[in-house]
Amino acid sequence: MLDAAVKALSQMISPPMRSILWRSIGVALVLIIVLAIGLQRLLSWFATYGEVWLEGLLGPGWHTSLEVLAWIVSIAAGLGVVFGAVFLMPAITSLVASLFVDDVADHVEREHYPAERPGVALPFSQAITEGVKTALLTILVYLIALPFVLLAGAGFLIFFLATAWLLGREYFELAAMRFRSPEEAKAMRRDNAATIFTAGLIIAAFVSIPIVNLATPIFGMAFMVHMHKRLSGPRPELIEPARQMR
C-alpha cells in the first residue's frame, strides 16, 4: 500500500501528468470559490433571517438555543470562503476526480502496467454521476458531524474517518469501473472494505494538507489504480504475451 502511495506521488509531478494536474487544480479552485461564496451567503442569511424563521416554526421555547446557533453561524459566515474551502474540499475533489479519472488512469496504466490490458474509459455521464453522488453524500455526512465539531473535538476525528471512507470508496470504484461493471466494482469494494478504508486514510491525510490538497484528485486516482491492480491479483488476460508462451 505504501509502495502504491509513493508511486502515485512520484507520478503526480511527472511531466506527462503535469498538464492534468494544473487543469484539475484550476477546476478545483473555481469550484471552491463558487461553492464557498454560496455557503457564506447561506450562512449570512441564516444568521440574519433564519433564526426568526425557525423560532416561528419551532416556537418561542427554542429562542435561546436558536440564538446561540445564530451566533455560531454568524462567526462561520464571517470566515466564509476559508470555512467553505476546508469544509467542501473533499466533496470538491470527488467532482474533480470524476472529470479526470480516465486521463490519470491512462497515464498510470501506460507507465506501470504497459503489458496489461488497458482499462475502458468510463462514459462521461457515468463518471459525473458517481462524482456528484459522492459529493452530495460527503456534504450530508459532514453536516451530520458538524455539531460534534462545534461541541467537541471528537468531531474532527469523525470528519477524518468519514473522509477516509468516502474518498476511498469513490476513487476505488472509479478505478475498478474501468475494468468491471458498476455492480462488480461495488462488490469488489465491499469484499475488500478494510483494505480500501485503510487506503482511504492515506487520501484523507493528503486532503487535510492545505494547498497540497488541490492535487487530491490526481493523487487519489493514481493511488487507487495501483490498489485495484494489487487487489485484482494475477489474471491470465493481463500476463505479458511472452510469458504466456513459456
UniProtKB/TrEMBL annotation:
Under InterPro entries, the record lists:
CysZ/EI24 (IPR059112)
Key words of the record: Membrane, Transmembrane, Transmembrane helix
Q: What is this protein called?
A: Sulfate transporter family protein
Q: Which residues cross the membrane?
A: 20-48, 68-89, 139-167, 196-225
Top-level taxonomic group: Bacteria
This protein's species is Bradyrhizobium hipponense
What membrane topology is given?
A: Multi-pass membrane protein
Q: Where is this protein primarily located? A: membrane
Q: Name one Pfam family in it.
A: EI24
The signal peptide stretch is none
The record's subcellular locations are: Membrane
